[in-house]
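--- STAGE predict ---
source: upstream dedup step, 1 unique chain passed
mode: sequence only
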Amino acid sequence: MAADLPPSAARVQSALLAAGVDGRVVLFDRSTRTAEEAAAAIGCAVAQIAKSLVFQTKGSAEPVLVIASGAHRVDETAVARALAARIDGQEIARADAAFVRERTGYAIGGVPPIGRLDGGHVVLDRHLTTLSPIWAAAGTPFAVFRTEAETLLRLTGATLADIAKR
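--- STAGE serialize ---
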């Protein structure tokens, strides 16, 4: 099956299999780059999209992956607060496309929550635990996989936090 996928999506499929997860990467003919586009392609609520956003610490440029509900904007202060002990109280900021590609191995719009090249810190939006199933990017802006928040917590070692902007 992974042989029929683009290389970046095949890496995600391989990561799922290696983790013992019964998940399958699904390719679409239309874009799944944004939460709205993904929800329309899948036929689910925007909230069920687990968007992967890459931030970086301002002091040491460590990557921070935020897995958030597609229905929420991320409160950067809440993310930094959730990771305070790990990032020594540094502020975080959205990473640019070059940093994202360099640290994850994927382009913006296709960054999966698993199978990353450079682990960094991971925070998962607590709201995702109230939804089932959820869908996450799978390496390209045309690929997703179905999962559960508990699975992502286990696979990523994420910190669970309330990170939605109020």
